[in-house]
Amino acid sequence: VCAQLCRRPCYCPWVPPRCPRGSPLVLDGCGCCKICARRLGEPCDFLHVCDQSQGLVCDYSSAPAGTGGTCNFEDDEEGCEVNGRLYRDGEVFQPSCKIQCHCLDGGFNCIPLCQEDVRLPTPDCPYPRRVEIPGKCCPEWICEAQDQHLLRDARAVSPLLRHPCPEWGTEWSACSATCGLGFATRVSNQNRYCRLETQRRLCMLRPCPALPAAFPAVS
What SUPFAM superfamilies does UniProt report for this protein, alphabetically (predicted)? Predict the structure, then answer.
């Protein structure tokens, strides 16, 4: 087989091939040129060898005579492939710091290592947001918007800060009722968060006149 398939001297490309992730550069079956090692389940033959570092061999048991085989574990033990890396059956591994997986019967099950809790708005944290923290694997909840509001509120009440909150507002509208209690509205930022909001207040232009009696008094 070597005499038929392997030529001497070797003629190899100047630039070695770029291999997919998890497939190392190895010598072909002739020991001549560098090629990408075949991974679990990929086709193989004498020249295109499997990744021996993962315990793989070219399995010809299920291939027709005269054709190539398929890369499989040498001891026929089932395994699983995740992100180009092979794991043995029963092996526990972490593809990332956020999940942990268990290889079992040719497949794998994973569980999250980061809490998947949901934080609802509260009075002390009205705008929760989950962000990635540098140096930490799992994201954390922060109240950045609330902190900005508190800073803006502090600027409004403290005369020592250079940029206090400038007050702004429209005039009060006309009273909604021509007599009796009504309400007037305006848009203003005069509140603890220094943000525009619609404000209302009660108003009364004059008392409403008394309704006439249904039946006049009998003298």
Answer: FnI-like domain, Growth factor receptor domain, TSP-1 type 1 repeat
Asked whether the predicted pLDDT for residue 54 surpasses 90, the reply is no
Domain ranges of the chain: 1-75, 80-112, 117-145, 168-206
CATH number of 80-112: 2.10.70
CA atoms within 13 A on the CB side of 218: 0
Domain 168-206: CATH superfamily, name plus number: Thrombospondin type-1 (TSP1) repeat (2.20.100.10)
CATH 2.160.10.10 given to domain 1-75: no
Amino acid at 16: P
Residue 198, classified by CB atoms within 10 Å of its CB into exposed (0-12), middle (13-18) or buried (19+), is exposed
8 Å CB contact between 30 and 6: yes
* C-alpha 104: how far from chain center: 27
Is the Cβ–Cβ distance between 29 and 5 less than 8 Å? yes
pLDDT digit string, tens, across residues 189-215: 776 667 777 777 777 777 777 655 554
Q: How far apart are CA 206 and CA 195, in angstroms?
A: 33
Beta strand 140-142 with 197-203 is unpaired
State the average pLDDT over residues 87-105: 84
The SS3 call for residue 45 is coil
134 vs 181, residue with greater confidence: 134
| CA 60 – CA 42 distance, rounded (Å) | 12
State the pLDDT at residue 150. 46
